[in-house]
Amino acid sequence: MALDIEPITPFLGAIVRIAPEDSIANGVPGQLLDALERHKVLLFPQIHMSDEIFLKLTAAMGEKHEVAATDDGSEVSGKGIFRIARDKDDRTQREFILGNDFWHMDGMNYSVPVKATLLKCEKAPAEGGDTGFANLHAAWDALPDDRKRQLEKLKVGHCLSACLRRLHEHPTKEDFARWDAVFSRVEHPLVWKQQSGNASLLIGSTANDIAGMSEAEGRALLDELLEWCTQDRFTYRHKWSDGDLVIFYNSGLLHKSYPYPDSAGRVMHRTTLKGTESTGAEIPESAAALY
Ligand code: OGA
Ligand code: MN
After folding, report:
1. Does residue 289 register a pLDDT over 60?
2. DSSP of 29-46, one letter per residue?
3. How far apart, in Å, are the Cα atoms of 76 and each of 83, 155, 255?
4. Ligand 1 pocket: which of 102, 164, 241, 268 to mutate (most atoms within 8 A of CB)
5. Contact, 102 vs 197, CB < 8 A?
């Protein structure tokens, strides 16, 4: 079966028109993976896929990444789906979701970051709550060669507190202890060269420092690179409708949610695929996949 695919922008994104059950038909998940590598974001407008097909599609596209820290005790969560919503009063859960409002790459606590994420819109937000994507491969390619050579030598520290401390005016020792228990500082190369020949700058909200630089110098570099990668020409911003499905290629992108009030009623269902490629970081694999 030939996929019906239409690019959204020259750099990023494609619309796929298919019936939910056809997405798991023989050969189709493999075609979707190819399209995902090429376009980085696949949008299935108002496909209204059931959780059952959603889980089957996830399994057909790769190995599912299980997360413990995001289990909110709901029925959906019991099925192995991360429910992204702000209607429950769970601090850990709420923090993770609020932290999504800053540009980031998922899985920076692993040497093999997650490959892709499937996000299904159960209830579109009444206000705000778009999702943004920035193409890191395109942003890297557009850098001048001498700049690339300088950046290739650097290492970057990532931790959860670099992101979540921004939600608090005065984070406490207990806050830091809670965040560090999930994801304390690890070092990655600043430039992740991938087998495809593409490269991703490992920046975003969890990037904390550049090894060997002062805090201020490292921060300034990280801010400059983030600004470069998130220019309009490298980004696509999706406004959700009920029933939309987006699959995004985590290891070649930054992504974020745009802020929305709790009252917007936004509910998303998410599954994640394990990655297959190491950044080269030396991070011991933790017993429980927390995040
Ligand atoms: C995620 C994420 C953004 C959103 O699921 O990893 O960052 O818009 N989500 O919900
Ligand atoms: Mn994310």
Report:
1. no
2. HHHHHHHHHHHSEEEETT
3. 7, 38, 24
4. 268
5. no
The residue whose CA has the least distance to atom 1 of ligand 1 is 100
Ligand minimally distant from the alpha carbon of residue 101: 1
Which residues 6+ apart lie within 8 Å of 144 measured at CB?
A: none
* Cβ contact 140:202 at 8 Å: no
Q: Whose CA is nearest to atom 4 of ligand 1?
A: 257
Which tokens in the block code for residue 100? 């999504």
Ligand 2 centre from 131 Cα, in Å? 10
Class of domain 4-276+284-288: alpha beta
Q: Over the stretch 40-89, which tens digit does the pLDDT of each residue have?
A: 999 999 999 999 999 999 999 999 998 766 677 788 888 899 999 988 77
Q: Where are the domains of the chain?
A: 4-276+284-288
Q: For residue 288, what pLDDT is reported?
A: 45
